[in-house]
């Protein structure tokens, strides 16, 4: 049976204070940071809040619970706009007055806002590592700073950010970018010891993450093949495609089949390879074949014909042509040279 914690969330620090009060435990405070360690009787890990003066706060969490737990936020006149990034395992979100449940999966982000009566509920499963990073924006306090972000917003976003009292419900889910993932890592791994410098650095990073998220939100409005920002999940799929190419170079599938295997359409796969490797998929495969052939010529006992088939090329003459074009020497001559040097 799940346990429910009802907590305030006007400020990020409220989450820490209310959890500590309910669980009857202490929490640590240093300058503008509040950290609660999950007691061993219910799990392990921590939840940390960092508060800044302009209405923006950050909630970090990395924990595992022994039993399922539901976090329900208390009703309030003012409540934050949440931009949450899931860095690890899936959990669920729902609004108290709705019947729909939303799964928030690894590498997904959500921007959510409740109304004064329609509260958030976050359902955290048992024995599952949860790792999240959330921007908590008090839109009343953030109002003055909104103007500096307006140029990055469309009409819908402007409406969300200027809904100062949270009258309207809002929910948007997508995958976050590699750049956002890097910025989150820089925030969470900051090792500055001086309080003022650390606070300035973290606030700047929080604002930078917000700007990148707004840019990504607008990029999401494009069709997948026209998006300019690579999502972290897309990069992992592309890296999986690279692994498949290297592991199966002798009998590699067509690009269409490769794209299907990693869960991308061909246009996104090609765009990702151009972005990460400055080449098309076909060029990447060709280059890897030549590099792998050079490695085998240097370090194996295979002959040129055997190496030709080992790298997935059926024509020895074609292999000799592309190898010589790259290295200025035929595979046969390179093989003889390499083995002569070894025996010398």
From TrEMBL:
GO molecular function: DNA-binding transcription factor activity; sequence-specific DNA binding
PROSITE patterns: HTH_ARAC_FAMILY_1, HTH_ARAC_FAMILY_2
Keyword Transcription regulation: yes
InterPro entries: Homeodomain-like_sf (IPR009057), HTH_AraC (IPR018060), HTH_AraC-typ_CS (IPR018062), PchR_regulatory_protein (IPR053142), Tscrpt_reg_AraC-type_HTH (IPR020449)
Keywords annotated in UniProt: DNA-binding, Transcription, Transcription regulation
Superkingdom as given in the UniProt entry: Bacteria
Claim: Hydrolase is one of the keywords in the record: no
Pfam families assigned: HTH_18 (PF12833)
Domain HTH araC/xylS-type: 239-337
SMART domains per UniProt: HTH_ARAC
PANTHER family cross-referenced by the UniProt entry: REGULATORY PROTEIN PCHR (PTHR47893:SF1)
Full protein name: Transcriptional regulator
Organism of this sequence: Flavivirga aquatica
